[in-house]
Amino acid sequence: MIPELGHFAVVLALLLAAAQGFFGIVGPQRGRVAWMNAAHSAAIGQWVFLSLAFGCLIYAFVQFDFSVRYVAGHSNSLLPTFYRVAASWGGHEGSLLFWALVLATWTAVLAAFSRAVPLAFKSRVIGVLGLVSIGFLTFMLFTSNPFARLVPAAVDGNDLNPLLQDPALAIHPPMLYVGYVGFAMAFAFACATLIEGRTDTLWAKWARPWTLVAWLFLGIGITLGSWWAYYELGWGGYWFWDPVENASFMPWLIGTALIHSLAVTEKRGLFKSWTLLLAISAFSLSLLGTFLVRSGVLVSVHAFATDPARGLYILAFLVAVIGGALALYTWRAPMMKSESGFELASREAFLLFNNALLVGATLLILLGTLYPLFLDALSLGKISVGPPYFNVAFMIPMVPLVLLMSIGMHSVWKRSRLGPVRNKLLVLLGVAVAAAVALMLFNYGEFHWMGLVGFTISIWLIASALVEPIAKWGQWRTLPAGFWGMVIAHLGVGMFTLGVTGVESYRIERDISMGVGETVTLQGYNFRFEGTRMVQGPNYEAIEADIAISREDGKVFTTLRPQKRFYASGGNPMTEAGIHVNYARDLFVALGEDLGQGRWSMRVQYKPLLRYIWLGALFMALGGLVAAADRRYRVRASAKDTVPAGAGEAAR
Amino acid sequence: MTRSLKSLVPAAIFVVLVGFLFVGLFRDPSKIPSPLVGKPAPDFTLEGLRDPSQVISNESLAGRMYLLNVWNSSCVTCRQEHPMLMQIARSSGLPIVGLNWKEVDWPEDPEVGRVRAIDWLTRFGDPYELVAYDKEGSVGINFGVYGTPETFLVSADGMILAKRVGAMTPEAWEQEFLPLIARGQGGS
Question: Which ipTM value was assigned to this complex?
Answer without folding.
Answer: 0.82
